[in-house]
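Justification of computing resources. Each target in the renewal requires a structure prediction run like the one illustrated here; the chain below, 141 residues long, is used simply to show the kind of job we budget for.
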Amino acid sequence: MLFDKDFIYFYQNPLLFMKDEGEDFMFALAGWPNGEDDLDWYSKALDSIVRLEISGLITSENKTEDVLNSLAHTTNQTEWMCYLFDLTSTGRNLLKQLHIPDHARDKHYLLPGLREALSRIFDEHGVGFDAELPYKMRLPG
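Resulting structure tokens:
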């Protein structure tokens, strides 16, 4: 189950940030983890990137499989900062369809319609919120 707070933090805010500011790395998009041992943050961030990139809403200048494989195997902040993400035209078009108020990036504001739209898109691409994702955190151990 994805709580509203996590949806806002890892999906809504990164998309709105990219819409307003352009490309950036995940720390700028979803905030900083509490150190390299914050596996919960890294796992949620990776799930977000997997869903958004496989569904064609964001892109990186690197090949998708390379980015996702690399991020799935590290919590090294320097390595995570190597990958910049930006909206695709599909991602921009999705956001244009929604009425986005000025306060939409408030950490407690849930943008009406976005969660439903993303759920539909993710399900269409096999990476829905209930789906088993092809990339998960797999740290050597």
